[in-house]
């Protein structure tokens, strides 16, 4: 039997990959893994403990009802980042504004973390997979001073590391530091993440598409044309592509990463700029997708090239297998040319 590689061992082995190999990023990734284990414990008890399940009673700045677990996970990660010393500030879905940590200890931190503490949280009550998404940048402000909004609004191409934790039938942590993508499964019996998916590659073509099809009639023509294409019989298999939509971005993306596929959330009349948030949902997954051989676009622009203008900025989002994303982009281009 081959030896198990734990996440900690893996991070240490790869430390030399980082441009600034001082061990701080390794410690930060380790902090994220510890916080995610605590959140796993809470997620696994949802439904049993009243303090954990259900609505928090508040709204976040985006007008969405907060679940108790949203707030619990948010606090857990923030606590870990504040105590770790590597991070000078954070931005998250559950905080209207970014948070600059005010201790001198934290101000010396070289990194900022942008994160969605619980993605797909409307799925908690129905026992469906949810996740955490994170994105790490070097600060652009001076070490020793307070974190600034500019630290938070860097384009996705500047990410140093990004990843997600999927609280699914098992808990998995998947991350990249720009040298490929690796996946780790939490072995609950020893409390360790173990390397289970080394060097993940997204198949160039998949047979599954993922979209909230309730939105199809209000989506732009290029998207309608692509979904119609997916629903045609594929001569190779004598059947159309399969539709798969969990409604947790992390879980839908994870399936596409492993099996090949595409996830589409276009702009709609109710979400004219798109539904998903650029800095803590789209950018981290776009970095992972590209590192695994996939693509991520708004339909008109590479996601990682967008310069964010505000913290909770939303974009139309198309991510997945290279050939599938290329096809939808072509159809959008074609439909837009005809319209002009
Ligand atoms: P969050 O729970 O962090 O607010 O994110 C929910 C997102 C994403 O996970 C999912 O893909 C999408 O919203 C679902 O939206 P619809 O219900 O409109 O399909
Ligand atoms: Mn989310
Ligand atoms: Mn969320």
Largest sheet: 8 strands, mixed
Specify the number of helices. Answer: 9
CATH class of the largest domain: Alpha Beta
- Separation of the first and last Cα atoms: 62 Å
Give the radius of gyration: 20 Å
What is the N-to-C order of secondary-structure elements (H for helix, E for strand)? HHEEHEEHEEHEEEEEHEHEEHEEEH
Task: Return residue spans where pLDDT drops below 50 for at least 5 consecutive residues.
Answer: none
- CATH arch. level architecture of the largest domain: 2-Layer Sandwich
Strand order of the largest sheet: 4-3-5-6-7-8-9-10
Domains, number: 2
CATH-derived topology of the largest domain: Fructose-1,6-Bisphosphatase, Chain A, domain 1
Q: What is the average of the pLDDT values? A: 94
Looking at the structure, what is the overall shape? globular
Task: Count all strands and give the number.
Answer: 17
What structural class should be given to the helix and strand makeup? alpha+beta
Strand-residue proportion: 15-25%
Helix content: 25-40%
Ligands: 2,5-anhydro-1,6-di-O-phosphono-D-glucitol, manganese (II) ion
According to CATH, the homologous superfamily of the largest domain is Fructose-1,6-Bisphosphatase, subunit A, domain 1
Description:
This protein is an alpha+beta fold and 340 residues long. It is built from nine helices and 17 strands. The chain has helices at 7-13, 24-44, 68-84, 104-107, 149-152, 221-230, 249-259, 278-291, 322-339, and strands spanning 55-59, 65-67, 87-92, 99-100, 111-119, 130-138, 161-167, 171-176, 181-187, 192-197, 208-211, 242-243, 262-265, 276-277, 295-297, 314-315, 317-320. The longest helix is centred in the first third of the chain and has 21 residues, at 24-44. The model has no long low-confidence stretch (mean pLDDT 94). The protein binds 2,5-anhydro-1,6-di-O-phosphono-D-glucitol and manganese (II) ion (2 copies).
């Amino acid at each position: 039997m081959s030896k198990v590689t734990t996440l900690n061992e893996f991070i240490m082995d790869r430390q030399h990959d980082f441009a600034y190999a001082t061990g701080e990023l390794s410690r930060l990734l380790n902090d994220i893994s510890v916080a995610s284990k605590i959140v796993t414990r809470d997620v696994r008890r949802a439904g049993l403990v009243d303090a954990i399940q259900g609505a928090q009673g508040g709204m976040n700045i985006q007008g969405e009802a907060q679940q108790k677990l949203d707030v619990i996970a948010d606090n857990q990660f923030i606590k870990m980042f504040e105590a770790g010393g590597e991070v000078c500030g954070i931005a998250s879905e559950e905080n209207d504004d970014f948070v600059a940590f005010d201790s001198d200890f934290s101000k010396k931190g070289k990194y900022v973390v942008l994160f969605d503490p619980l993605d797909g949280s409307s799925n908690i009550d129905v026992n469906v997979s949810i996740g955490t998404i994170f994105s790490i940048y070097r600060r652009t402000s001076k070490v020793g001073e307070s974190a600034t909004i500019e630290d938070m609004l860097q384009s996705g191409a500047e990410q140093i590391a990004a990843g997600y934790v999927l609280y699914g039938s098992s808990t998995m942590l998947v991350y990249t530091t720009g040298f490929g993508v690796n996946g780790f499964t939490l072995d609950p019996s020893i409390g360790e993440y173990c390397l289970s998916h080394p060097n993940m590659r997204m198949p160039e073509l998949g047979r599954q598409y993922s979209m909230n099809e309730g939105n199809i009639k209000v989506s732009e023509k290029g998207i309608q044309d692509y979904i119609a294409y997916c629903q045609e019989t594929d001569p190779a298999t004598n059947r159309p592509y399969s539709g798969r939509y969990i409604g947790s971005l992390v879980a839908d993306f994870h399936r596409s990463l492993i099996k090949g596929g595409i996830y589409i959330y276009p702009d709609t009349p109710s979400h004219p700029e798109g539904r998903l948030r650029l800095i803590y949902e789209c950018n981290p997954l776009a970095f992972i997708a590209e590192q695994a051989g996939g693509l991520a676009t708004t339909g008109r622009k590479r996601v990682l090239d967008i310069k964010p203008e505000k913290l909770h900025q939303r974009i139309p989002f198309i991510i997945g297998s290279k050939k599938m994303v290329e096809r939808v982009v072509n159809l959008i281009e074609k439909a837009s040319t005809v319209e002009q």
